[in-house]
Design goal:
about 280 residues; alpha+beta; Jelly Rolls; 2 domains; five-stranded antiparallel sheet
Length: about 280
Amino acid sequence: MLNNIDKNSFDNNGYVIKKNFIKDSYHTDLFYLFYDLGVSTIQRNKIKINYELKKVDDIDFDKDLKELDKILLNILKTDHKLIGELYDTVSYSSCFLKILSDSDIEDYSRSLLGLSKRNTIYSWTHRVRIDPPKDERRTYGWHQEIFYTIPETKFIQTWCPLIRDTTLENGTIEVCEGSHKEGIAKQTWNEINGRATQIIVNEDVVAKYKQKKIPMSKGEVLFFDPHMFHRSGHNSTKDEIRFSLVGMWNDTTNIKFRAPKPEFKSRTISAKEYFDSVQKN
């Protein structure tokens, strides 16, 4: 599945873009998923809005994308943490899991990792990012993915637009071509109040490489080397959310691979608290 043109691009530039890897139906399903979850989040948390919510069966992907923007921006304005809960809900939904288990994406990731069709690959931190206009709380500077994943393992990184295209205006991904050849670059660990931890490649190292912004259309997937410097652009639109898929595929045959322990923590009461409340009599 990995042809010579793709291999040369990946080896020389650090990335390759594949077209028609995310089916149109996946984008449609994700639109309805986000709309449905957005409406229930507004209703559950009694968020005040000044417009009437349409029922999920009455909306149309091609006509009502701005309605989804409006709903999510209202949630963000009310309580940014609610979007984190929405992230977690989406990542374990059947709709999202269908995308991750798509055979084209799986097989191509295996081929880039040098694996056979029967080797197992492990999903790590696959999420749909929601990047609103002019909000940089989760926007990273130039970084490698090495320290954001399972330590000392072999993996491939993926990124792609979902629901709508990514453009220069809404802050599509940016890469430093050929920077994967740097290996693990010199970088700094930054703890910033109110923002995610940032592990940023030093500016003098970044300056050695050509920086490129990559607008992408729905259906395209960017596969790239975990050592390549990359970052998200700035969403400069007025009211348009950028939706993107981020995540990694790990090689489980690698000698240092050890699956992390999943840790699920209730956002409400614990199992013991629930037991006690039901069984107290």
